[in-house]
Write a structure and sequence with these properties.
The complex is a heterodimer of chains A (about 325) and B (about 450). With about 325 residues, chain A is an all-alpha fold. Chain A is built from 14 helices and two strands. The N terminus of chain A is likely disordered. The N terminus of chain B is likely disordered. The longest helix of chain B has 25 residues. In chain B, strands 1, 2, 3, 6, 7, 10, 11, 12, 13 and 14 form a ten-stranded mixed beta sheet that branches. In chain B, strands 4-5 form a two-stranded antiparallel ribbon. Chain B has 20 helices and 14 strands. Classes of the chains: A mainly alpha (about 325), B alpha/beta (about 450).
Chain lengths: ~325, ~450
Amino acid sequence: MMAASVESLGAPSRPAAPVRTGRWGGHPTHLAQQRRWGALMLSPTLLILGLFTFVPIVLTFWISLHAWNMLTPITKMSWVGLSNYTNLFHDPTFRSSLLVTLVYVVIVVGITVPLSILVGMLLYFPRVRGKGVARTVLFTTYVIPTIAVAMVWGALYAPSYGPLAQMFHAVGLGQPTFLSSPSSALASLAAFNIWQMLGYYTVLVVAGLTQIPGDLYEAARVDGAGFVRQAMSITLPLLRRTTVFVVLIGVINAVQVFDPVYVLTQGGPITSTTVISYDIQRTAFTYGLAGEASAMAFSLLVLLVAVAVVILAFMRSR
Amino acid sequence: MAFPRRTTSSRARHPIRSLVASVLALGSGASAVAAAGPSSASTPVTVTFLTHYAPPQVAMLQAAATAFHKAHPGISVSFHAVPFGNLLSTLTTQGPSAGWTVANIYDLWLPELVQSGLAAAAPANVTKAVRTNWPANLVTDVTKGGAVRGIPNEVDLYALNYNKALFAKAGIASPPKNWTQLVADANKLTNKSAGVQGFGVITSWAAGVVHPWLSLVDSNGGSLLTGTKPNLTNPRVEAVTKLYAQLVKSGATVASMSTANANTTGPYLDNFAAGKTAMIIMANWWEADLKAAMGSHFSDVGVAPIPVGPSGTKSSSVSYSWLTMVNSKASPAQQAAGWQFLQWLNSPSSGKNGSSAMGDVLMSMGILPSRLSDVAAHKAQLSDPFLRVYVAELKNASPFPTVLGGEQMTDTIQTALESVIFGRSSASAAMSSAQSQVSSILKQANG
C-alpha cells in the first residue's frame, strides 16, 4: 500500500525500499498520530505504574543502601552501601524465614493448583443445576477480608475448646495442636490459605476451560475416550497456559502471606511461621531497621522476578 | 514497600500561624511550646491521642476529653485506638508526619523515640508536676536526655496466679514459695486425663514469654543485663530455663496450651480461665480480662509472690511502666494543647474522689496507677484480694531494662525460650545461642 502511493507520485521505478508501517499499516502521518494517541491513552496507566510501582521499588532499593529507623526524616539516612545485603546472608532469622516461606509456598501451591483444576473441571463439565451458585459460594471466601476470616479461623483452631478440636476429640483423634505447635502451625496456616484461595483459582480454571473448543471433546467421545482420557489428552494440555498463570499467581500470593501470620501466630511458635513478609514488617516497624527491611524486601522482589521468569520460560519451552 | 512522607496539613493551611509557632519553637524550645498553649486557645486545636486501650477505656478517656473541652473550648481531643500489637508500628509510621499528637507508650520504646527526636521534652510546668507527684524511680524512667519526656501512668508487675479450687482439689493448702514447692505442686496439680496443666507459660507474644521468665530470674538473684551486656548464660539466669525444661519434660507444662494472639489474649488466658491451668505467672493488668472470662469463678483466683529460686533471697518481679508522651513533630500549638490535656488528665481535678481521670481508667482494668495521689485515692480498690499482692510486691520489683534494641532483644529471648518450651532445644544451647545474638543486637544498637 505504501509502495503504491510512492509510485503514484512519479518516483523512479526501482524496487521500493522496505517501509516500516504500523501494526496495521498506514500513512506515516497516521502512524505518528496513532503513536501519539497510543501514548496519550497509555500515559495514565504508565503514570500510575510509575508512581505506585516503579518509584516505591526504586525508593526501597535506595533505602536498602542506608541505615534508617523511619522515625527521622528520610534525608537523615546514613549511607551503608551494600552492607544490609551482605548482613542478610549471615542473618539466621532471614535464612529461616526464607525456608519457612518456601515450605509454605510448596504446601499451598502444591495442594491448591491440582485441587482448583479438579474442582474447576467438576464445576464446568457436568450438566447439573446450581453450578453457578457453587462457583459463587466458592468465590465468596476470596472476597471476605483476610483479617476477619483469620479471626474466625483463630477461634476454629482454638485448642481443646475450639470446634475443630472438639470434632477431633469426638472421633477419638486426640488433642490437635493446630497453631499451638511448631510442627503444625505452618500447615494450619496453609490450610487456611487453601480454603480462602481455592475459589479464586477455580474461577480462573473455569475461565480457562471455556477457551477449549467443545468439538475436540465431541471428537474424542466419538473415538470412545472417557472422562479421564479426555482430561489427560485434551483438558490438561490445553489448560496449560491457565495452569501456569494460576501457579504464578499462587506462588506470588503465597510468598506475600502476612495477615493470618500477624493475627494468629505472630511468627511463632518459635519461628515456625515467621515468613519473609512478617520478618520484613517486624524488622521495619518493630525494630526500626528500615534499611535492613528494605534490603529484605528488594531481595524478595528479585527472587520473585526470578521465579516468575523460570515459570514463564518453562511455559514457553513446552 | 514504600515509605511515604506526609506534610503537616495545618502548616499548609495556616502559614502565618505556623511561622509564628515555628519562631516560638525555634527560639526557646519546650518553654515556647508551653507558651503557645494559652495563646492558641482562641484558635481551635485538635489533639490526636494514640492508645492501645480497649473500647470501654477509650470511652472513659473520651468522656474525660469532653469534660476538658468544656473547660477549654479551643482544644478538642480525638482518640485513635489500635491493638497493642499494632501500637509500635503505628507510632513509627504516623509519628514523623504528626499523625498523632500524644501517645500512650511502653517505656521500652522511649529511648528510641528520644534518640529519633520524636519524644518532645515536657514544658517546665509539666516537668515540675511529674517530679512532685510521681515516685522517683518512675521520674527517672521517663527522664531521657536530661528532660522529662512524658507523664507516667500505669505500672505493671508480675505475680503467681493460681486456681484455688484446683489447689483445694489436689490437697495443696498454700501457693508455692520456692521452686522446689513450685515443681512439686505443678506435678501434683497436673491431671492429663482432665487436660489440666500444673504450671502454664505463654508463647507467641514476646513480653508474655520473657517477662514471667525474667521475674523468675530476678527471684533467683539473676539479672538480664549488666549495662548493655546480656547475662543469659549466667547460671542464675540459665536455671530458670532449665526449670522450664524440667516442667515441660514432666508434663506439668503443656506447650500447646500456651499460645497468645495479637491482642495478647487467646488460649493461654482461656485455659487459665477455664480451670485448665493451675498456675501461671502474669501481670496485674489481666484482672479485667480474667473477670470477663471467668465471671463468678474469678473468686477462685489466688495471687502470690513469684516463687524464690535456689540462688535467690527474696521474691522479685519484673516491672514496666507506660507513659503518655507528646509528638515533637506536631505543631507547637498541638504540642502545647497536648501537654495541657495530659497534665489535666493526670491531675486530681479530672477524676473522681481525688483520683485523676487516667487513674480511674487504669483502675477499671485492674492496672496500678503510678501517681501518688491516685494510689491514695484508690486505696480501697488496691487492697482487693487480687491487686494487693501486686501492690505489696511493687517495692521488690526490678524495672525491665530500657535499652536501644530492647524489642529485638526481647524477641530473640522469646525465640530461645520457646525452643525450650517446645522441646526443640536444650536450655543451655538455647541460652548460649540467645546470648550471642542479643550481644550482637545490643552492640549494634548501642554502639
